[in-house]
Design goal:
alpha/beta, four-stranded parallel sheet, globular
Length: 160
């Protein structure tokens, strides 16, 4: 039996980038026939938006792209999440610092920026500030595809 890979996307408030990434990844996992092999979630690094639904811009961009929004209310990342997930995927350097602050130090090897898996590792801009949900979506899509490719290669190595 294959090990289930558990991913969690984290941004500041869990209403823009991380629920977008969660929805995009859930869609790609289904498209690639990986249901049951990869589980996705998202969380906030700060309490600003806890309990709130995804931002209108995130909802509209996903609708425009034909990607279903995963049912979601913003929730806070906790230290207890450290043992529940295999990859903690922040959207920018501040998110990564916050994740390291929240999780036990033994989780440090599981913390990445989403775009670290692409050929152009960098932060994903926060559309809360930029207003550019198109650019954020393009980065999220690139990051999710690159992460899935990476996970496929890692699983292939585990089998040899």
């Amino acid at each position: 039996m294959k090990k289930i890979i558990r991913l969690i996307f984290i941004c500041h408030g869990n209403i823009c980038r991380s629920p977008m990434a969660e929805s995009v990844m859930a869609y790609l996992v289904k498209e690639r026939g990986l249901d049951g092999e990869i589980v996705v979630s998202s969380a906030a690094a700060h309490t600003d938006e806890i309990g709130n639904p995804p931002h209108y811009g995130t909802r509209e961009k996903l609708k425009q792209e034909g990607i279903p929004l995963v049912p979601h209310r913003a929730r806070l990342l906790t230290a207890n999440d450290g043992g529940k997930y295999d990859y903690f995927l922040g959207m920018d350097d501040a998110n990564v610092r916050d994740i390291r602050r929240i999780l036990p130090s033994e989780c440090n090897g599981k913390i990445f920026r989403l775009l670290d898996f692409t050929n152009t590792p960098r932060a994903i801009a926060d559309p809360w500030y930029t207003g550019n949900f198109d650019a954020t979506f393009n980065d999220v899509l690139a990051g999710c595809n690159a992460l899935l490719d990476y996970l496929g290669k890692e699983n292939a190595r585990d089998l040899t």
